[in-house]
Design goal:
Elements: E1 4-9, E2 17-22, E3 29-33, E4 39-43, E5 57-59, E6 62-64, E7 71-73, E8 89-90, E9 92-95, E10 98-102, H1 103-108, E11 131-133
Parallel strand pairs: 2-11
Antiparallel strand pairs: 1-10, 2-3, 3-4, 4-8, 5-6, 6-7, 9-10
The structure holds FE2/S2 (inorganic) cluster.
Length: 136
C-alpha cells in the first residue's frame, strides 16, 4: 500500500511551472503543473547533462530543459526524439486540492543521481526559488 506524503497545495505550484521538493537524500524532485492542472513529478535532473528541469518551460505535457532545450515528457521522463535518455518519474496524486508524492519513492528513488559539479547545471542547489522542504 502506498503511503502518500503531502507536499503542498496545488495552487502553490505555478501554472506552466514547477516547484522543487528537497529530500533527505538525493537530488530534489520537480513537481510540475500544466495549463490543464495536471501534475507530474520528475527528478530535477535532465537526462542530457543534468540541467534543472524545474527551471524549464512547461508546454503541453512536456518541459523544455533550460540548458540545451531538450524536450522531456512529464508523464514518463523520456526525452523526445532524436534525443535519447530518461529521467526518473515519481508517482503523484492530487486530492482535495493537495499534492502528494509516494513517501517510499521520495526516500529511495534515484538517490544516487548527482548534479554536475561544473557548468550551469551545478547552480540548481538549495535556496533556489520554489523549493520546499517536506516534513518528515
Ligand atoms: S542539460 Fe538539459 S538539454 Fe542539456
Amino acid at each position: 500500500m502506498t503511503t502518500w506524503k503531502r507536499i503542498c497545495h496545488l495552487d502553490d505550484i505555478p501554472v506552466l511551472g514547477a516547484r522543487r521538493v528537497q529530500r533527505a537524500q538525493g537530488l530534489e524532485v520537480a513537481v510540475f503543473r500544466t495549463e490543464a492542472d495536471e501534475v507530474f513529478a520528475l527528478l530535477d535532473r535532465c537526462p542530457h547533462k543534468g540541467g534543472p528541469l524545474s527551471q524549464g518551460l512547461v508546454f503541453g505535457s512536456s518541459v523544455a530543459c533550460p540548458l540545451h532545450n531538450w524536450t522531456i515528457a512529464l508523464a514518463d521522463g523520456q526525452a523526445a526524439a532524436p534525443d535519447e535518455g530518461c529521467t526518473p518519474k515519481f508517482a503523484v496524486k492530487v486530492q482535495d486540492g493537495a499534492v502528494y508524492l509516494d513517501a517510499h519513492e521520495l526516500a529511495t528513488l534515484a538517490t544516487d543521481a548527482t548534479r554536475p559539479v561544473a557548468g550551469p547545471a551545478c547552480h540548481a542547489r538549495d535556496g533556489a526559488p520554489n523549493c520546499s522542504t517536506i516534513d518528515s
